[in-house]
Amino acid sequence: MFASFLGQSSFAAYVLSSERNTIKVDKDLPLDILAPFGCGIQTGAGAVLNTLKVEAGRSIAVFGAGAVGLSAMMAARIAGCGPITVVDTNPGRLELARELGADRTINAMEEDAVAALRATGGVDYAVEAAGIARVMEDAVEALGVNGQAALVGVAFGQKVSLDPSMLQARGLTVKGTLMAGKGALPAQFVTQLIAFWQAGKLPVERMIRHYEFCQINEAIAAAKDGSAVKPILRFPEYG
Fold it and tell me: Model pTM greater than 0.90?
């Protein structure tokens, strides 16, 4: 099986991997926790630490409280950002965001997130991690003067509409970001993130739920309805 699922061969018993895309970790580390570091966790954290290069004491809003968004939020906490706001429509995920360090959460089904954030002058940084064009627009519109937004969510075929006068008047910057983020080497960055996890600064296990491979349908359903933030499948041992 080669590149059959997001280029990762996620459901294969064996994979072919080059030196470039292989990261060696200590054999005693739990692979069922480290698995998502290769994609969602480094993508969210990379948007904050490497693409936006956030500064301590500056405000940030994260739109989307999935694995990518929560990883971005935890990275912002590591970097010393504040206040940190998380926007989502799932009450359970917003509760988890608060437990993981969000200073404020907004349920977008109950409150206009852009209006709420603009009421205090807007945020210095925004991360969009929902993959929805309208949410991308909201992330940009929520920025204050000289604010920066990183668009992380995958929105194939969608179009984003932005008012250029808004960008000009406020001096806004909109960046795209992927995986470890701008200028970062994934092998080095993932190693750094693992160190954060070992130090208790990046408790990603709080958003992981494990399923045996025979429970794959339940895992997919939990991902779709939002009851599991990051489902991880455990494969049977191969001899």
Answer: no
pLDDT in tens, 157-185: 778 888 888 888 888 988 888 776 676 67
In the chain, beta strands by DSSP E: 60-63, 84-88, 104-107, 123-128, 143-151, 173-176, 208-212, 230-234
Identify the structural domains of the chain with CATH numbers, from first to last: 30-239 (3.40.50.720)
- The tokens describing 67, both together, are 């694995």
What tokens were used for 21? 């895309």
- The DSSP-derived string for 14-70 is S----GGG-----TTS-HHHHGGGGTHHHHHHHIIIIIS---TT--EEEE--SHHHH
Overall size of the chain counted in residues? 239
Cα angle, residue 172 at apex, residues 101 and 165 outer, rounded to 5°:
135
